[in-house]
Amino acid sequence: MDAGTRALAEPLVSQSRGDAGEFAELAVRSSGLAFRIAYSVLRQPDDSEEIAQEALLSAHRNFSRLRKPEMFRSWLIRTTWRLALDRVRSMRRRERREREAGLQSELLDRGEGNSLEFRCALAEEIERLPRKLRQVVLAAAGGYNTKEMARQMDLPEGTVKSRLFLARKRLAERLEWAVEDTKKR
Amino acid sequence: MGCRRYQKALNEAAAGGLAAERTRWLDEHLEKCPACAARLARRREAMAKVDAVLLGAAEVNASREFPARLQERLAEQAATPPRWPLVRVAAIAALAGLALLGIWAAGSGRFYRPRPAPIEAHVSHRPVTSKLKRSAAPAEANASVTVKPQAAKLRGQRRSAGNGLSAADRRIFEVAKIPPERDAVIQLYHLLQSGKISPRLFLTSGPKENGEISIAPLHIKPLEIPPLKAGGGVAAAGDESQDAGDPQGPITAGTRR
Predict the structure, then answer these.
(1) Cis peptide before B207 (omega within 30 of 0)
(2) Does the predicted model carry a pTM greater than 0.90?
């Protein structure tokens, strides 16, 4: 297994394939991670819990078919991320429709200072990042610090730091327009 | 303005990773260039927002009830028998639809027409002329002529402008010029005339040694065929054209206008 694909591996998981009780325990242990990933995009606790639950239920359904169970956490991060991205996109569509209809959308008030438009744009830009950079960004969103990431990805901490720096720099460059756009409104 | 060479430094400064020496160099430029200063401010703001979104989530936790609720839902899901995924159902429905379409297409003959069954007719061999008797191979009495209709590959063949005959029509005459096959060709004409095979069929190959003739559908008018003589000969118009020195002369069994 190369360093890139060993991201967030959890060796204990390999023994729990197919066992419902063990999976439930694992799911509860990983629920915080799934919640934080969803929350980084949605910024709304209820929605984030719903997405995290959906991701874990999906994991439960498909866990026996997972080819590399030790990659469960990586897989969970990715699944949760995708579901959260879908949700934020649908929220943005709804918000646009409501704005076009002249309604004050309740969705605008959510997001703790970051507009829905900006969060959606950020999530889409993260999706466009190269895999290596996206991995560290998502791990950071999931609450891992660089030391933990370095250990779990089997990379030097300096490499993780530089990847994270590069990813943030790239995201800031690409989202400069979004800052301008937010100011105009 | 020479601002381009500061772009990389601007990006690094926004991300907080610019060395002290390069920071001073950039600051000197920013004092003189309000456009770059504004760009740096925008980029710093974007970076702060990115960090707030990415790193801010790390301090937030799900509600206390969430793990219990999750366990409950997992137990519910484990108790429910697995349902077929929608994709699988859709794939099976699509396959069934395709199979039905195939059956319908085969039944309607839209994409495939089965080859018609061979028409068999028992005809007796009769010599055409005395000259032909000499030149032709010994004839078998009561030879069986099997007519195998072929696919309509000659359908729609264009007529040539010259003599009003299509290429397919001309082929009939070419075949008819060969004496050993002459009888079989005449038999074919008689099959056509007697209505045992359709006048819209056309000879494409043969006759072979076993008397097999392949024919294909063609839009041609029935030819004028000389009647068979009671004594076995054919009162063909071709008889006139076959003089003594030309045993392989063409059978002008009929002409078309």
Answers:
(1) yes
(2) no
